Amino acid sequence: MHDMAFKPSGSPVQYIQIFANPWIDAGVILLIVWFVSQLSLLSWADLSYVLPITAGSYVLTAVLGDVFLHEFVSLARWFGIFAISSGVLLVIGTSPRAKLGTGEVLP
């Protein structure tokens, strides 16, 4: 995104030209895939189960940013990533209370 010479303007043409960039198009497609995946997850499990599981994406994003983009990730952020990972592991150890696909809550 740093390579794009975008300056906010009142012209809608400049905003439409942004979609000529294949990286922007790929990002939009990935957001659509994520949204559909999120909706399908929420159709069979409780929100309190799904959200912590999807928080694993924060870990993946930081690791990929460090490895492939050579971004600096501070020690405090790595500690936060460890805390998120610990919480995700606790949630994975439990089962969702709703029956798959029915929305019925188990005792």
Summarize the structure.
The protein is an all-alpha fold and 107 residues long. It has one domain. α3 packs antiparallel against α5 and α4 packs antiparallel against α5.
Can you put this structure into words, describing what you see?
- The chain has 107 residues and is mainly α.
- It has one domain.
- The protein contains five helices and no strands.
- It has helices spanning 12-17, 22-42, 47-54, 56-68, 75-92.
- α3 (47-54) runs antiparallel to α5 (75-92).
- The chain is flat.
- The termini are far apart.
- The model has no long low-confidence stretch (mean pLDDT 79).
Helix-strand layout with pairing:
Blueprint: H1 12-17, H2 22-42, H3 47-54, H4 56-68, H5 75-92
Helix pairs in contact: 3-5, 4-5
Low-pLDDT windows of residues: none
- The helix/strand order is HHHHH
Give helix % range. Answer: 55-70%
Q: What form results from the Cα inertia axes?
A: flat
Q: How many domains in all?
A: 1
Q: Could you tell me the radius of gyration in angstroms?
A: 19 Å
Q: What can be said about the biggest beta sheet? A: none
Oligomerization status of the protein chains: single chain
Number of strands: 0
**Number of alpha- plus pi-helical segments:** 5
Structural class: mainly alpha
Mean pLDDT: 79
What gap, in angstroms, lies between the N and C termini?
A: 49 Å
Strand coverage percent: under 5%
Question: Notable features of this structure?
Answer:
single chain, 107 residues, mainly alpha, 62% helix
